[in-house]
Write the structure tokens for this entry.
Amino acid sequence: MWRPLWCTNYNVSGLFAASNYAFYVLAKDATGNTANSNILNVTTPDTQAPSAPANLAVSNLSQTSLTLSWTASNDNVGVIGYDVYQDGIKINASNIAGTNFNVTGLTAATAYSYYVIAKDAANNNSVASATLNVTTLSATNSNEIFTQRTVIAGQNMPHDLVYGPDNNLWYIERFAGKVNFVNITSGIKTTLLTLGSTMVQVGGQDGLFGLALHLNYCARSLMSISHILINPQVPQCVKPGLPDILIILATILWVLL
């Protein structure tokens, strides 16, 4: 670019950041004689920081490790990497070129906070990403000891033990035809329903066989009871080789307390 000057300095504007330029000065006299200066190569500085990393997320969470991932930042020249901070301290020993990082050496059941900063070749750092709070998983105790305890004894063929949402132990007595629950702390038994001896053939294959409590039992007090009754009065089947026909009555009772 030719610009005639009468002085020995000139301000150049309109340049681009992080760009290379070559300059020289041409001197001339009144008769048109000219002489060039040496060539000066100049690179303009990059002062624009990258954008902040976005969408910081965690995966592969365990008791002692986790994986962080994020969306790449943008820069006018180019992002060269990222730094990860845990509780305000940078934890990566070397530059992170990608958009994920494995964190190890953590403590179980402990809260940590993380954020990520992007950087470019000119050492411009972005503002930090949004902070992500993470709690590692609790440690499992491999030395847990379980003890056997009798809550209630002497029941008539107990079936279908259910630990209810009301913190009681529910069960049925098959041949007694009863629906009971027992307080596991006090051991006090309460009989909710008795079908009676006519509904149970003692020593047979019938009686109560099923019990289920509604998921929201504490609010709706609903339960399902299955009952099977064998009728001994049914004659033999005419078709040879088949056993006696058994009439099985399966009764589903929805009991509203």
